[in-house]
Amino acid sequence: MKLSRLEESLYSCCRLFVQGDEKSWVASGFFVKVKTLDALQSDLLVTCKHVVDGATSLSIDVRRRIGNDPIRQPTISRVDIELDKAVILSHPSEDLCAIFVHPLLTPLMKIDGAWPVIYAFGREHICDYNTLDACEEFVMIGCPSEMFDEINNLPIIRRGVTASHPGFHYKGSQQFLVDCPSYSGSSGSPIIRYGNLFFDRERQSYDLAMHPRIALLGMLTSGFDDVSEGGQHIDLGVAVSADAIAQLMTTAEQFLGQIRPPAAGWE
Known about the structure:
This protein has 267 residues and is mostly beta strands. 14% of the residues lie in helices and 39% in strands. It has 2 domains: 5-122 and 248-257, Thrombin, subunit H (Beta Barrel), CATH 2.40.10.10; 123-242, Trypsin-like serine proteases (Thrombin, subunit H).
C-alpha cells in the first residue's frame, strides 16, 4: 500500500506510556533520524523533557513489517525502555529531549527479521524559517486527552494555525505559539506544515505544488498558561521550534561520531 506524505507522517508519531514511582501518564513522541559522516544511522524518539522528568520507564507500541498488509492489518510489538539505562540527550534551554531507541528496536529483527514500520523525520524535513509567513496552517499529530486508535495503532490528527510568527523566536526563546488548544497527552506532538500552496518569498508568489509537501515546524510542549485581561483562558499552545530540534539532532550526530567501534545494535 503506497502512503501519502501525510500518512507517512502518522507513522512518525507514537503514544508514550510513561511510568513513575507512584503514578503513570500518557504523552506523545515522534521519530527523527540522524547519521554521521561514517554513514552510521540511528532513530531517536523525540519528546518533552517534562514528559520523562521523574519517570523510571516508558513503553511504545510499534507496527511490524509482518504479513501481506502491515498497514491495514498491523502486528504490534511493545518496546519497553528503562530510562536509567537509555541514552537521553536534552536541549540546553528548551523543553525538548531525544532518546536513542535504535538499539532497543534491533532485537525485534532477531525474532523474525521484521524492522518496525517507522517514518522518521530527517534534516530535509526541518522547516526553512525564511520561507514562513506571519501565519501558517499546520497539522499536529498526537494523543490529545490520551486519545489513540488502538486497533490501527494510529494517533489523532488535528489542525491549527500559528499564533505568533513562526519565523521568529517568541520572546527570545526557540518557541512559537499555536492557535490549537493543548490537552493532556499532547505534549511531544510534532507540528507539521502541510499543504499544496506555499508562499515563495523570493518570487513573491504562491507556489502550487503538484504533490502536498510537509515540513516540520516544531513540537508542542504545553498549553499557554496565561489568561487574557478579562480573566478568560486563552486556548493557545506553546511549541518548540524546529531549529531547536535540528540542534539536538546535531548533538546526537556528534555523540554517534564518538562511538568507536559502533556499539552493539547501533549498526
